[in-house]
Amino acid sequence: MQTPRERWIGRDAGPIVRPYAVTRGRTRPRGLVVDLVTILVATGRTPGDRVWLSREQRRLLELCRRPSTPADLASETDLPFRVVQILLEDLHQYGLVEEMPQAEHGERSDRPDPRILMRVLDELRRL
Question: Is this prediction's pTM over 0.85?
Answer without folding.
Answer: no
